[in-house]
Amino acid sequence: MTEVAAALIRCGNRFMICRRPEGKKQALLWEFPGGKTEPGESMEEALIRECREELDITVVPRDIFAEAEYAYPEGSVHLTLFNAEITAGVPKKLEHSDIRWVTAEEMAQYDFCPADRGFLEKIRALG
User: Fold this and answer.
1) Nearest Cα to 58, choosing from 49, 66, 67?
2) Counting beta carbons within 10 angstroms of the beta carbon of residue 11, is it exposed (0 to 12), middle (13 to 18) or buried (19 or more)?
3) What is the helix (H) or strand (E) element at residue 5, kind and residue range?
4) Rounded to a whole number, what is the distance in angstroms from the first to the last CA of the chain?
5) How many domains in the chain?
6) pLDDT digits (tens, 9 = 90+) for 69-110
7) Paired strand residues for 70
8) Are the C-beta atoms of residues 66 and 87 closer than 8 Å to each other?
């Protein structure tokens, strides 16, 4: 099973979501920023690295917001969504085709990757 770390980044009542680029698996679907762990890397280390590589931001992972497992045709993932905070930088589209800040209610208008969809109800409860 592939371990994936993702960030739930909040600014006021809005959350950052990112759109996957064309040509990648789950192309053009929305997700929370993050990515796969590398050998010997903790989930927190992976999240920090992925946000730096894909968005040119520094994040501090806080507590775990939620976890989910999902079986894609190419393999299963265990996704850990951390509450996280941007401590340096402004998000840039280095990897993603779009970045948006949306309210919990607005998330229903976006087509998320299947592994991320399980988090939406819990996020809506935050308001």
Assistant:
1) 49
2) exposed
3) strand 2-11
4) 32
5) 1
6) 999 888 899 999 999 999 999 999 999 999 999 999 999 999
7) 77
8) no
